[in-house]
Design brief:
Cytochrome Bc1 Complex, Chain D, domain 2, elongated, two-stranded antiparallel ribbon
Length: 288
């Protein structure tokens, strides 16, 4: 064992370690630090005894206090469900008009509907219900199957082109793919449809397309192209387009048709949740 070495400036013994000419002094640890260390040791022993701490093969040590965060959460959820049950029972027996007329039930339904929308509808319609190509914007007043409370509730229940026996469905023919119309006829119809919403179009082609539209399309969309909510036929006179209002997008729609699907939520969501969803969607600004 070597001879102890002392620092010339402080007279403190060194540890023998040296880095780039700097030697480490063998100073004792601060007293406050030692007290904190031993207090932590004592605290940990007490924690092991009082609280769940040690994992076992099939469970864990319960501790003298028997505390469980999981039990706390379960209890909080149980209390929340009990508080909600009062409102849910009222919603289950009330119609949509009565719920909307009751300020307290309406407030509860809007909150519950917003939560259900975020969990189930936002992946397609967006968090703000703004929609996307092929997914309707629920903030406007353009509805395919009706925007009244009862209409929205029914759409939620049965879906659109879903597997529900009463689903909303009225397929548009694929006029090009199924060779119902010639490509030139489709081009003319597209020009006429563009004029319905004030778009720039070839006047001669639109004139020819008008006759084709009256023969092939007016049965669903109406003679003036204003649509029919009973059939799910969109209004072609506004500037709101589900799949795009450009000439090419309209041509693709006429040629190949569109067949978007919305699932049926009946059986997947409770009836009171569907009511809350209907009220929430109706409140977004486009409800009729």
């Amino acid at each position: 064992m070597g001879k102890p070495e002392f620092d010339a400036a402080t007279g403190t013994e060194t540890t023998g370690h040296e880095w780039d000419g700097v030697k480490e002094l063998d100073n004792p640890l601060p007293l406050w630090w030692l007290w904190v260390l031993w207090a932590s040791v004592v605290w940990s022993v007490g924690y092991w005894i009082a609280m769940p701490a040690w994992p076992l093969v099939a469970s864990y040590t319960q501790g003298l206090l028997g505390y469980s965060q999981r039990a706390v959460v379960a209890n909080d959820l149980s209390q929340a469900k009990a508080a909600q049950a009062v409102y849910l029972e009222k919603i289950a027996t009330a119609d949509l008009a009565a719920i909307s007329a009751d300020a307290e039930l309406l407030r509860f339904s809007l909150a519950g509907g917003a939560a259900a929308f975020g969990d189930n509808c936002a992946p397609c319609h967006g968090r703000g219900a703004q929609g996307a190509t092929g997914y309707p914007n629920l903030n406007d007043d353009d509805w395919l199957w009706g925007g009244k409370l009862e209409d929205i509730q029914q759409t939620l229940k049965v879906g659109i082109r879903s597997n529900h026996p009463d689903t909303r469905v009225n397929p548009m023919p694929a006029f090009g793919r199924d060779e119902i119309l010639e490509p030139a006829q489709i081009a003319d119809v597209v020009e006429y449809v563009l004029t319905l919403s004030g778009g720039d179009a070839d006047a001669a082609a639109a004139g020819r397309g008008k006759a084709i539209f009256a023969e092939q399309c007016a049965a669903c969309h109406g003679e003036e192209g204003k649509g029919n909510m009973e059939l799910g036929a969109p209004n072609l006179t506004d500037v709101l387009w589900l799949y795009g209002g450009t000439r090419e997008a309209i041509r693709q729609t006429v040629r190949n048709s569109r067949a978007g699907v919305m699932p049926s939520w009946e059986g997947r969501l409770s009836s009171d949740t569907i009511k809350q969803l209907a009220i929430y969607v109706h409140s977004l600004g486009g409800g009729q």
